[in-house]
Write a structure and sequence with these properties.
Protein name: TetR family transcriptional regulator
CATH architecture of the largest domain: Orthogonal Bundle
Mean pLDDT: 84
GO molecular function: DNA-binding transcription factor activity; transcription cis-regulatory region binding
Helix content: over 70%
Low-confidence stretches: 1-6, 196-202
Oligomer: single chain
DNA-binding region: 36-55
Radius of gyration: 20 Å
CATH class of the largest domain: Mainly Alpha
Structural class: mainly alpha
Distance between the termini: 66 Å
Strand content: under 5%
Number of helices: 8
CATH topology of the largest domain: Tetracycline Repressor, domain 2
Keywords: DNA-binding, Transcription, Transcription regulation
Number of domains: 2
Domain HTH tetR-type: 15-73
Length: 202
């Protein structure tokens, strides 16, 4: 009887440890893509034995962290209406998910060094496709410049977000200002050649 009563508590403790480990993995990899298991365990407040009890290797842990971040980002994007004006849709996407995208990029950098390229592309395919489709639609509607490939503009977005995340971490940029700075930079870069700044289309 006592062991049956204890099991839910043990399961809750185990789940709590998993959540702490995954959160610590994101934090550590965001600072250093080569962060060790020992560093992650210390940041999570658990021992290496506990960490390895949930994740059999660093590779498994990195992949699990990336999956969780991408799932969280997908959940946020699922709640957005990206069917309207592409300019405003891209702004909404940036403002709602830039921090998750920044964290995903950091963990993705770590994943690229340990996971097969095909596996990384598969994990990242859905969010990348969502951004690419939005930019392609904007190009087709004349809202975004069409003289550069959509995937180039999507990569630009990710690099700007990564730079903003670095500046926030280093204290050079207030986190509250980051979404606006990212949006204005990316939307300006997307503006069709010859369009004036005051025009509503980008």
């Amino acid at each position: 009887m006592s062991s049956a009563v204890a099991k839910p508590g043990r399961r809750a403790d185990a789940q709590h440890n998993v959540e702490k480990i995954l959160a610590a993995t994101v934090t550590c990899l965001s600072r250093n893509p080569d962060a060790s298991v020992s560093e992650i365990a210390q940041a999570a407040g658990v021992g290496r034995v506990t960490l390895y009890g949930h994740f059999s290797s660093r590779d498994v842990l990195v992949e699990a962290s990336l999956k969780q971040l991408l799932a969280e980002g997908d959940q946020v994007l699922e709640g957005l209406d990206l069917t309207g004006n592409p300019r405003e849709a891209l702004r909404a996407l940036i403002e709602s998910s830039w921090l998750l995208i920044a964290q995903s990029s950091a963990v993705l950098a770590a994943a690229q060094s340990i996971l097969p390229p095909g596996r990384v592309r598969l994990l990242h395919a859905k969010p990348a496709q969502r951004v690419g489709d939005l930019i392609s639609r904007g190009q087709a509607e004349g809202v975004f410049r069409a003289d550069l490939p959509a995937n180039w503009l999507a990569n630009l977005l990710h690099h700007v977000i990564k730079g903003a995340a670095t500046d926030v971490a280093d204290g050079r940029l207030d986190q509250a200002d980051a979404p606006r700075f990212i949006s204005e930079t990316v939307l300006a870069a997307c503006r069709p050649v010859g369009k004036e700044r005051h025009q509503s289309s980008c």
